[in-house]
Amino acid sequence: MLTKGTENVSWGFRNPVDGWHTAVFQEGINLKVNEASGKESLFIPLAVDEGSDDDGCKVGTFVNTRDENREPYKTVEKQIGDILTNAGLYDAFATKFKDVASYLDTKVIEAMKIKLPGTFVMVETKMEKDNKGNDRCNIKGWAPKGTVKEKKAAKNKAEKTPTAATTEAGSDW
C-alpha cells in the first residue's frame, strides 16, 4: 500500500523549542578536524525522542578536543566525562578503560561510537546566533534520563516506552 502524503508539510531542518528534552544518541560520533584552523572536535549527534512535537529534531554537539598544535583542550576530559556520566556509561567506561589516561585515547573514542548510540539522556537546548548570524541549536546542559530535570522538559511531552533495540547503558560489558 502506498503512503499518503501530508498537506502543507515542511521538510526543512527543525529545531526543538528551548528547554529540557529527552534525546537519544545517534550513529555518526566522529572526530573532525577543521581544515582551515587545524582544530579538532568530537561531533556527537542526538535526536529528540520524547513523544512531543519536537520528536525527530536533530541536535548535536561539538566537544573541542585538540587545538591546532594537537594539544588537548583543558576542558575536554570534563566535558566527555559529563556526557558519559549523564548517559549512565561512566562506570562501565571507568572499569573497561581503567589503565587509559584520557578520553581521547582511540580505544575510548571507538567505544563511544559503539556504546552511545541508542542511549537516552536529557539535554537542555537553547537557540542562539552563531558568529555569522545563523540560528544554532546549542546544548547548554546534560542530565540523566529520568531525573528531576525531565519534569522541566518541553510542553507536549508524552511518556514513551523504549523499543526492544534499546539496552541498559553499559549492560553488555
Model description:
With 173 residues, this protein is α+β, with helices and mostly antiparallel strands. It has one domain: OB fold (Dihydrolipoamide Acetyltransferase, E2P) (Beta Barrel). The protein is 16% helix and 28% strand. It is built from three helices and six strands; from the N terminus they run ββββαααββ. The chain has helices at 76-86, 90-96, 106-115; strands at 19-25, 30-33, 40-48, 58-66, 120-129, 135-143. β2 (30-33) and β3 (40-48) form a beta hairpin. The relative contact order is 0.22.
Quickly give the CATH architecture.
Beta Barrel
Give the biggest beta sheet: 6 strands, antiparallel
Secondary-structure-derived class:
alpha+beta
Q: Count every helix, treating DSSP H or I runs of 4 or more residues as helices.
A: 3
Q: How many strand elements? A: 6
Q: Which parts are unreliable, with pLDDT below 50 for 5 consecutive residues or more?
A: 153-165
Helix content class: 10-25%
The end-to-end distance, rounded to whole angstroms, is 43 Å
How many domains would you count in the coordinates?
1
What's the mean pLDDT score? 86
Oligomer: single chain
CATH topology: OB fold (Dihydrolipoamide Acetyltransferase, E2P)
| Overall 3D shape | globular
Query: What's the CATH class label?
Result: Mainly Beta
How much of the sequence is in beta strands? 25-35%
Q: If you compute it from the alpha carbons, what radius of gyration comes out, rounded to the nearest whole angstrom? A: 17 Å
H/E order of the elements?
A: EEEEHHHEE
